[in-house]
Design a protein that fits this description.
Rhomboid-like fold, 2 domains, three-stranded antiparallel β-sheet, 8 helices, membrane, Peptidase, S54 family, hydrolase, serine-type endopeptidase activity
Length: 251
């Protein structure tokens, strides 16, 4: 199953996202990625901090890069460049630690950015729940699906695959993907509800009045506006507040 985001505008160039995508591309040229793979039964060392920067093949890298390009740029736009950089590594380390906890005696090495991608998707789920997306199930394509529905189905699929894994001898990273996704949701919810984003001057959507309208921070629908204050989007039912500093979601 694949989820593709419909165009979601951003206010600043996602420099960190682009650099990290290029960095993971460069790691494909390494002769032996086994030295950087994370193996629970071995000493952690550098692999705990670096295994999620590597991918086993160009196809895997392409899949993760597409997800990062579609979703990470908007999350970076929300939280800011520096905080996004630390979140990227936080989700990667969390995915590795989850793999360690669930497969403590495993000698199967793992690499890949999927755990990071899952954490970013969890944050996107909270920040932009009503952005339209396209879901692809092999030959079935479903369009114009709100992202909170498509990502809910996606995480349910990952959870199901983990439950299937429990009854087999195959060791995978599905548990890490579920944990990082839920962690991303929690982090994003805390940032929104406690207004940490505003305190850190990283606004959810830095836009200004244009033609006496303000854009909804969730679906970018233009809403007539003559002054600052509270707004309600009739298209996606999002409530938000717009002032001179930008926009923020309301719980």
């Amino acid at each position: 199953m694949f989820v593709f985001e419909k165009a979601n505008q951003k206010s600043r160039f996602p420099i960190v996202t682009i650099c990290l995508i290029l960095l993971t591309l460069c790691t494909l040229s390494f002769d032996s990625i086994g030295d950087y793979a994370f193996t629970p039964k071995k000493e952690f060392g550098l692999s705990l901090l670096a295994s999620f920067l590597f991918n086993t093949s160009f196809v895997e890298w392409t899949t993760n890069a597409i997800y990062l390009y579609m979703f990470a740029d908007n999350v970076e736009d929300v939280v800011g460049h520096l905080h996004f950089f630390f979140l990227f590594f936080f989700f990667g380390i969390l995915a590795n630690l989850t793999y360690y906890i669930f497969h403590m005696n495993s000698i199967t090495p793992v690499v890949g950015t999927s755990g990071v991608v899952s954490g970013i998707l969890g944050m996107y789920y909270v920040f932009f729940p009503n952005v339209k997306s396209t879901m692809v199930f092999e030959k079935l394509v479903v369009r114009e699906v709100p992202i909170f529905i498509s990502l809910s189905i996606w995480i349910c699929v990952q959870t199901y695959l983990y439950l299937v894994e429990l009854h087999s001898n195959v060791k995978t990273t599905y548990a890490g993907q579920v944990v990082t996704f839920l962690s991303g949701m929690v982090i994003a919810t805390v940032l929104v509800r406690h207004q940490f984003l505003d305190k850190l001057e990283h606004k959810l959507r830095l836009t200004t009045f244009q033609n006496k309208t303000v854009l909804c921070p969730s679906c970018n629908h233009p809403i007539p506006a003559k002054k600052y204050g509270r707004f309600h989007c009739t298209v996606c039912q999002t409530n938000f507040f717009f002032d001179r500093n930008g926009k923020k979601f309301l719980p």
